[in-house]
Amino acid sequence: xxxxxxxxxxxxxxxxxxxxxxxxxxxxxxxxxxxxxxxxxxxxxxxxxxxxxxxxxxxxxxxxxxxxxxxxxxxxxxxxxxxxxxxxxxxxxxxxxxxxxxxxxxxxxxxxxxxxxxxxxxxxxx
Length: 126
What we know:
- This protein is mainly alpha-helical and 126 residues long.
- The protein is built from 7 helices and 2 strands.
- It has helices at residues 3-15, 25-37, 40-52, 56-60, 83-89, 105-108, 110-124; strands spanning 66-71, 93-98.
- A two-stranded parallel ribbon has the order 1-2.
- α5 (83-89) links the parallel β1 and β2 (93-98).
- α1 (3-15) packs across α2 (25-37).
- It is globular.
């Protein structure tokens, strides 16, 4: 009924601000607006595809260096159902959990994420 309100209410969980992640009201508003800019049908299809597509076989067949980063406070993709399971499936991966990080890890833990990406790329290219 009220998609903008639902998005705004769930933004706090997306960023895990209840755990002390500092996110400006402007960044929250911008993120909510980005979500609202896509059609409701597209948003539903993305969620539906994520819940109904089984990629376990493909994950187990990966033969490239793989970095898996996941927040331990991700309400959208709970750690025990997603990140940890993926790490068990993908051979020879580098797996890191970010304490206190929600689904918006790329915005709340930017420096750590960028450093981990850099380290992974440097280590994978040698």
